[in-house]
Design goal:
Number of strands: 39
Largest sheet: 8 strands, mixed
Helix content: 10-25%
Mean pLDDT: 92
Shape: globular
Low-confidence stretches: 1-34
Number of helices: 10
Structural class: alpha+beta
Strand order of the largest sheet: 32-33-35-34-36-37-38-39
Length: 677
């Protein structure tokens, strides 16, 4: 990897000419300069509607600055009727306030937001009356927060650090977490008075806490206690209610295995969570919980996971609520993923009727503007294969499709000229009648020059999905002259609960058959010739390793944040003891060693003949870098062609949210590897 050249915006090294050259006996075209760089994109955050003046929303708008190696952002006030836009700024100095995840106070007079200008996501407060903002909790990393209905307090979640620079004792099983490193402490609930900035810790259990929500009168605060006191092997969520005036606490046991969202309506709690396991193999579903009646699962006939499960590498939505309730508290709106799209659904609480809101778009975030008998109006972010995210509104008369109105054109900049591509959908049916659906994205350059090769990309999770969303990596590969093949094999989200569960116990077996069967189907339909390449990250990296050890059709492979040894991952991943045990059908280290190693690619390292590039963040806690170290060590000692690039300080999500300079270096490494093979 050439470390002395800085890629230009399009990923082409500065000073390199655009030309065609012979490499490995075949002609390749260097087309990277035709694609604008990541820095040209504008990335909108989740919109928040003013409760008192619903024609106004606030949202963050971010960009990628490779030179400063940061994500500068600004808070935008957007008028939904006139389209007027204004940057939230200090009215005295004119300096804009950078931040993300803004939320209005109930009176619409204040905006809270998170800002990392001091290195952590601090909680800030902007007062329109004063025209200035202040930091409420200096130096404190805030993970989530909620306004009180009266606008006088904010409850927030922060991870307490329990470590020392000399040494520290580990007491909990989940002492590390990807994206946070090794904090060794618990997530706790705090309360801050917005007038005095007085802080009060509310939660007391030796447990993580989440989902703070106030009662309507603001006198009580509820939140989820994820584990029984001091034992975090398995989630056993409780809903704890703190009486803020009396200092008393009560605890309720809803009976769910995890809770990801919580709403408080009179004496009822509505939310989303899982019924039998905390692991992502099971869909999050809606529920209602009453102390006297217990827990009931809602919309049980809708075979869709609650939440946003379609992958993209250019989203910065910030805090993004997947479940919301209408102002009249009679309807719940929620995001769900189905067949490669993120959709919005409405659940009537009186009849429990559940319907899709027909937005006909891939929704990234949404908020309710109004909801009355004649219909509902929604503001939302949406994107597609070829279109980066923008802000839209739509009115739904509860019967017909929604006519969207696009409010922003932040990515209509003339600089943003994407390569012309053709997208086709395909499906493959396995012997056990599992249907893998996916797509091809093929560059269509002037003169229709033949593509240089085809790259099969496998997503991670495995319970995530590819879909109709803007994915920079794919357009970048197309700009280099490669066809991209990507699909959703068994285990992917959005195709039903049984489809998601079909991968349990089948890693390295039926999933591999799905991927290769889909590739064969695409190859026949598109009459593909030329070299085939393989690429994937996380679980996708695992499957890359497995395939190159068992199938030798690929000219080269790229394995990112990879997994090669399931046995060691059990103990050194932040959640390996939970995720991998569930994925392998309950296998355990001391009883199922043979199964774990049988499904580990490292056992088959001698069979690898495909050159492979390994890309891994050094601070990845989900798939620790020792996985790439083992794979590199084994392949190098066996005389295989392998290269290993490490990204200092990078976590598991580096490819999508990491330091811009590392993201640019990653793209350069991928381009160099493909073009040299």
């Amino acid at each position: 990897m050439a470390g002395d050249r800085t890629p230009a915006l399009g990923g082409l090294p500065s000073g390199e000419k655009q030309n065609s050259k012979k490499q490995n006996g075949r002609e390749r075209s260097v087309m990277a300069a035709e694609l604008p760089g990541l820095e040209a994109l504008r990335l909108p955050g989740a919109p928040q509607v003013n409760p008192r003046q619903p024609e106004w929303v606030v949202l963050a708008r971010s960009r990628i600055d490779a030179e400063k190696d940061s994500y500068p952002s600004e808070l935008i006030l957007l008028n939904l009727k006139s389209g007027e836009q204004a940057v939230l700024q200090d009215q005295t100095t004119g300096e804009p306030y950078g931040g993300h995840s803004p939320k209005w106070s109930e009176d619409g007079e204040k905006i809270a937001f998170l800002s990392n200008q001091n290195g952590v996501n601090e909680l800030w407060l902007y007062r329109f009356a004063a025209g200035t903002a202040q930091c409420l909790v200096p130096g404190v990393q805030v993970k989530d927060y909620a306004w009180s209905p009266q606008g006088d307090k904010i409850a927030y979640i922060t991870r307490e650090q329990n470590r020392d620079s000399v040494c520290f004792q580990v007491r909990r099983l989940r002492y590390k977490l990807d994206g946070e490193g090794i904090p060794n402490g618990f997530d706790h609930v705090y309360l801050v008075d917005v007038e005095t900035a007085k802080l009060t810790r509310i939660s007391t259990a030796a447990s993580d806490h989440r989902c703070p929500v106030f009662s309507a009168d603001g006198r009580r605060l509820a939140y989820v206690v994820e584990f029984s006191d001091g034992d975090d092997l398995e989630k056993q969520p409780q809903i704890e209610i703190a009486d803020l005036a009396q200092g008393q606490r009560s605890s309720l046991s809803p009976g769910a295995k995890s809770i990801s969202a919580l709403l408080w309506v009179n004496d009822k709690f509505y939310g989303a969570g899982k019924k039998t396991t905390e692991n992502s193999v099971e869909f999050d579903k809606l529920f209602v919980f009453e102390e006297r009646k217990g827990l009931r699962w809602l919309a049980v006939n809708l075979d869709v996971p609650v939440g946003y499960w379609v992958l993209s590498d250019v989203r910065r939505t910030g805090l993004n609520a997947a479940v919301q309730i209408s102002e009249d508290e009679r309807q719940i709106f929620f995001a769900g993923t189905r067949e490669g799209r993120q959709l919005v659904f409405r659940l009537r609480l009186d009849t429990l009727e559940c319907r899709e809101v027909p937005l006909a778009a891939n929704v990234i975030a949404f908020d309710l503007i109004s909801c009355e008998e004649k219909g509902c109006e929604i503001v939302y972010l949406a994107d597609s294969f070829k279109q980066p995210a923008e802000v839209y509104t739509g009115f739904w008369d509860l019967q017909n499709s929604v006519r969207p109105e696009q409010l922003t054109r932040w990515n209509d900049n003339p600089v943003l000229v994407w390569p012309e591509v053709e997208i086709k959908a395909y499906a493959y049916t396995s012997q056990d009648q599992i249907i893998t659906r996916g797509w091809t994205m093929t560059p269509r350059s002037p003169g229709s020059k033949p593509v240089l090769g085809s790259v099969l990309v496998i997503h991670g999770g495995p319970h995530l999905s590819f879909g109709d969303t803007f994915f920079y990596d794919f357009l970048y590969l197309c700009s280099l002259g490669f066809r991209v093949i990507f699909g959703n094999p068994r285990g992917s989200s959005g195709y039903g609960q049984s489809f998601s569960r079909a991968i349990v116990g089948e890693w390295g077996n039926k999933d591999a058959g799905d991927v290769l069967g889909f590739l064969d189907t695409v190859g026949r339909e598109e009459k593909i010739t030329g070299p085939l390449f393989l690429m994937g990250g996380s679980y996708g990296g695992y499957l890359v390793n497995w395939l190159i050890a068992h199938d030798h059709r690929f000219q080269a492979a790229i394995s990112e944040r990879t997994v090669c040894n399931l046995y060691s991952k059990f103990g050194n991943s932040d959640l390996g003891f939970s995720i991998n045990k569930a994925e392998l059908g309950g296998g355990e280290l001391w009883t199922d060693e043979e199964l774990l190693m049988e499904r580990s690619p490292i056992r088959y390292a001698p069979q690898v003949s495909t050159p492979v590039l390994l890309l891994h963040g050094e601070n990845d806690q989900r798939c620790p870098i020792e996985q790439s170290e083992q794979w590199f060590n084994a392949l190098r000692r066996l005389g295989k062609e392998v290269e290993f690039i490490r990204f200092p300080g990078a976590s598991h999500a580096m490819a999508a949210t990491g330091r811009p300079q590392q993201r640019r270096a990653r793209l350069k490494a991928i381009a160099d590897w493909l073009e040299s093979h």
